[in-house]
Amino acid sequence: MTPELLSLSNNWPLFLGSMIVKILAVFVVVILMVAYATWLERKLIGHMQTRLGPMRTGWHGLLQPIADGLKLFFKEDIIPSQASKVPFILAPMMILVPAFITMAVVPFGPDLVINNFIIPQQITDLNVGMLYVLAMAGLGIYGIVLAGWASNNKWSLLGGIRSSAQMVSYELAAGLAIVAVFMLSETLSLREIVALQMKPLWGFITFLPNWYIFSQPLAFCLFVVTSLAEINRTPFDMPEAESELVSGFCTEYSSMKYALFFMAEYANMIIISALISTLFLGGWSGPFPGFINILIKTVGFVMFFMWVRATYPRVRYDQLMFMGWKVFLPLALANIVVTGLVVVLLQ
Amino acid sequence: MFKALIQGLIITAKHLAPSKITTVQYPTVKLQMSERFRGLHRLVPTQSREKCVACYLCPTVCPAKCITVEADENEKGEKYPRVYQIDLLRCIFCGYCVEACPVEAIEMTSAYELADYKREDFTFTKARLLK
Q1: 3-class DSSP state for residue A286?
Q2: Strand duo B41-43 + A205-209: pairing
Q3: Of A47, A52, A311, the CB nearest to B8
Q4: d(CA A257, CA A275)
Q5: What's the rounded Cα separation, in Å, for the pair B93 and B113?
């Protein structure tokens, strides 16, 4: 009897059980990574600025994320009297939830076979996987705009508006950049994209995997830069822009709500790193057992983003718009045209 | 443009080396103060008493007016300070008292950890300054 894909119809208790286990595992790992990404960032940027970063709480400050969490948890939760209460409370959740549920489509290992059922190591394998990711990335921005608007503070409002304008201009370039990848893979399912990347490069170079970074280097660069802008990381952290907008959209937030914004920022960074690894660097495929590969790739990208933050100053707003519309968008379109030509000629 | 961007990344990466760190882990590691550092004052003692002859030059020159001296005469007929008191909360550590002293009876040490809990504890009397 050949193993069949586990679903609700053929063995619902096992399906539910495996689903709960997978969701819990992914959630806990992402939460832990979010916590320790803050530690890693402080350490890395500290060392790059010839400082040490946190050293006092635990060995080399390893307990710092826990201390920060506890501190923020016990802080007074302030809601400004003139703020719109419901959107003000809703906004942090609206940022965090899309950030976390994006992780549902990222595959983190090969299929397991238990009791003659195939259990994919992925919470859910949507056939429109990447479309779902882009949709969730677009949803996340509503939280920022809502936070800026509900705070009744001009800095927050400016931050929120900037964020939405940034999202509109960069989502387009990011989406078009990865269209070229889908022209090669002919699928949007992340599980199948990973499977395709495990074949030999271009079908005949056996010592290299068919990672899309080799066939689509321009799309890779474009997607990395535009994702930086999409998740509002420096040098594109316009919505926060400490030196211009106090703290941007989260100026009026305190206590755990503020912590939620922070968690969302790091969760977004981790998830975008996981997606870049999945789309361009072969996802979980590699020399180690499944999830270790994607963990290494993800942490590598997270560290690269921190490195970028330690290096570049924030771009000016008009430069941001110029780059989005006049550089990245035409480049992405040109990449699609060239890829299309090559695909047609090779057929 | 790309060259400049990569150069920037290389510079920050070079700073990642542990040898580049300039932080001193203060409470556990302490820097050696310069010899000319102006820290807590000290009255220089001789065999039997302090060197100070209570000439009043230091309270006169003190811009913060933090030194209190009361002169008296001991059994040998020498002039000595019966009271010598520095209010560290007023002191600005300018070192003029050291410069003004004709007999080099006051000097400044490298002690700089002067925090305390009570205001009274910042009044340094003769006994404390002689240590």
Answers
A1: coil
A2: unpaired
A3: A311
A4: 26
A5: 14
- Give me the residue from B13, B22, B23 closest to A307, CB to CB: B13
Give B-chain residues touching A311 at CB under 8 angstroms: 8-9, 11-12
**Of A93, A24, A43, whose CA–CA distance to B16 is shortest?**
A43
Chain-centroid distance of CA A197 in Å reads 20
Residues A133-148: tens digit of each pLDDT: 888 888 888 888 888 8
Give the start-to-end residue ranges of the domains of chain A.
80-109+125-346
Model pTM?
Answer: 0.82
Three-class secondary structure assignment of chain B: CHHHHHHHHHHHHHHCCHHHCCCCCCCCCCCCCCCCCCCCEEECECCCCECCCCCCHHHHHCCCCCEEEEEEECCCCCEEEEEEEEECCCCCCCCHHHHHCCCCCEEECCCCCCCCCCHHHHEECHHHHCC
Determine contact, residues A310/A222, Cβ cutoff 8 Å: no
**Tens-digit pLDDT profile for residues B68-117:** 999 998 888 888 898 999 999 999 999 999 999 999 899 998 888 888 89
For residue A247, give both structure tokens.
């703290």
- Nearest Cα to Cα of residue B73 among B64, B82, B65: B82
> How far, in whole angstroms, is CA A222 from its chain's centroid?
15
Residue numbers of A between 39 and 78 with CB closer than 8 Å to B = 44, 47-52, 55
Name, in order, each residue with C-beta under 8 angstroms of A154's C-beta and a sequence gap of 6 or more.
none
B14 touches chain A (CB under 8 A): no
Please tell me the distance from the alpha carbon of residue B38 to that of residue B108, in angstroms, as a whole number. 5
Chain A residue with minimum CA distance to B11: A311
Whether the complex's predicted ipTM surpasses the cut of 0.85: no
Which architecture characterizes domain B37-129 according to CATH?
Answer: 2-Layer Sandwich (3.30)
In sequence order, what E strands does A172-319 have? Answer: 200-201, 205-209
Give CA–CA dist A320/A144, Å, rounded: 18
Distance between CA atoms of residues A102 and B73, nearest Å: 87
Give how far B61 is from chain A: nearest CA, Å.
42
The residue ranking higher by pLDDT, A53 or A203, is A53
